[in-house]
Amino acid sequence: MTASHAGALTGRVRAPGDKSISHRALILGALATGVTEVEGLLEGEDVKRTAAAMAAFGAGAERLGEGRWRIEGRGGFTEPADIVDCGNAGTGVRLIMGAAAGFELSATFTGDASLRGRPMNRVLKPLGEMGARWICRAGGRLPLTLQGGGLKHIAYRLPEPSAQVKSAVLLAGLNAAGGVEVMEPEATRDHTERMLRGFGAEVLVEEADGGRRIVLPPGQRLTGTNIRVPGDPSSAAFPLVAALITPGSQVTVEGVLLNPLRIGLLDTLGEMGADLSVANVREEGGELVGDVTARHSELVGVEVPPERAPSMIDEYPILAVAAAFAEGPTAMRGIGEMRVKESDRIALMAAGLAACGVAVEEGPDSLTVMGTVRGNHGVAGGARVTTHGDHRIAMSHLILGLAAGAPVAVDEPGMIATSFPGFLALMRGLGAEISA
């Protein structure tokens, strides 16, 4: 797939449903008793794998229409008859393992080549302390067979901020004697806590030691409910940044999730001088949403605070693209988590940007994009970028190609469907020149 400079981008679009919330809606709906109806569910490959997994664990999972799903929960999981294939869904498999650990069952999980190469030890450690057992490949990698049931209380301090690990422990805690406590050093996305309350659970959250303490008391039972999934800020980032770096552009993305723990990118772009505005702010399904408009802007490089990483960890690739068109360096530190995503995103962004003529400096947990110099706001482009099957690496470089001097191609665009199945049509509708 190749992106070329084709002039201003204009229009109004709606971001696809938030991936994090979509995964959780399906899992909690399956754990609950009764029917859960979901609107706006992201129908990317990752989320569809989670829907199939919920069916494998005994829940009803029926698609009613575009983005509309009906989940019939049985109040728990039953043992699956076959291997549970989670595809590329890292969030899905980690949360499902947490949920499954609370039941007397054995389940084998696998995934695609990318997922099988990603370590699961950070989730397995607390689950093991609670009493779960497993057999897996070296390094905690899939395929993995989990033996659940008989879990005990745990008060677990996260070694590093991770909403996936926190959520896995909370989901396991639904069926742990004595419930669970999680202490996180920095606040991470809180969709699990919010959604557990929506399903009727009691979740206590308090500030503690500069971070947060989350307590799930024992004996919780979930009841089916209705959920409307807001637009994913990680996906909205692509058309918004495209507008910021392409002269003459103005793009509005409607219904974007504005959860305070998910807007780190908007805060950072604002510090870089981005012309961003938010309108029609309202609450949907317990989450704040709004319509975000981006206009072409002259950006400047900034230092991104390391403590902001949990609120924008998936958005650093597209931030690096914005930084390439900014005047002066943009330093992103404390982002080591990027090395264990679908790919080593620090290495791939550094390589892709360098191939497009952008100066970068890469560290173990950092990436600095040198940006442009005054009077020379061009990015050369002209590269064919290796993505290692990572959807965010692919989309980020395609956005770069829309404003670069020469077209930019990516080698594996098919993986974009894991998180943003309508990406190509949406961007073309705004005026982007992207050929498949």
Explain what this protein looks like in three dimensions.
The chain is an alpha/beta fold and 436 residues long. The protein is 30% helix and 28% strand. The protein is built from 13 helices and 24 strands. It has helices spanning 19-31, 45-56, 90-100, 113-116, 121-130, 163-173, 191-198, 233-245, 264-271, 316-324, 345-355, 391-403, 423-429; strands spanning 2-4, 10-14, 33-39, 60-65, 68-74, 84-85, 106-110, 133-137, 141-147, 152-157, 177-184, 204-208, 211-216, 226-228, 250-257, 275-284, 287-295, 303-304, 330-333, 360-363, 366-369, 384-385, 408-410, 433-435. A hairpin with a 2-residue loop joins strand 20 (360-363) and strand 21 (366-369). Helix 1 (19-31) packs parallel to helix 2, helix 1 packs parallel to helix 7 (191-198) and helix 8 packs parallel to helix 10.
Short descriptors:
436 residues; alpha/beta; UDP-n-acetylglucosamine1-carboxyvinyl-transferase, Chain; 2 domains; 4-stranded mixed β-sheet; 13 helices; 24 strands
Helix and strand topology:
Layout: E1 2-4, E2 10-14, H1 19-31, E3 33-39, H2 45-56, E4 60-65, E5 68-74, E6 84-85, H3 90-100, E7 106-110, H4 113-116, H5 121-130, E8 133-137, E9 141-147, E10 152-157, H6 163-173, E11 177-184, H7 191-198, E12 204-208, E13 211-216, E14 226-228, H8 233-245, E15 250-257, H9 264-271, E16 275-284, E17 287-295, E18 303-304, H10 316-324, E19 330-333, H11 345-355, E20 360-363, E21 366-369, E22 384-385, H12 391-403, E23 408-410, H13 423-429, E24 433-435
Parallel strand pairs: 2-15, 3-14, 6-7, 10-11, 18-19, 22-23
Antiparallel strand pairs: 1-23, 1-24, 3-5, 4-5, 7-9, 8-9, 11-13, 12-13, 15-17, 16-17, 19-21, 20-21
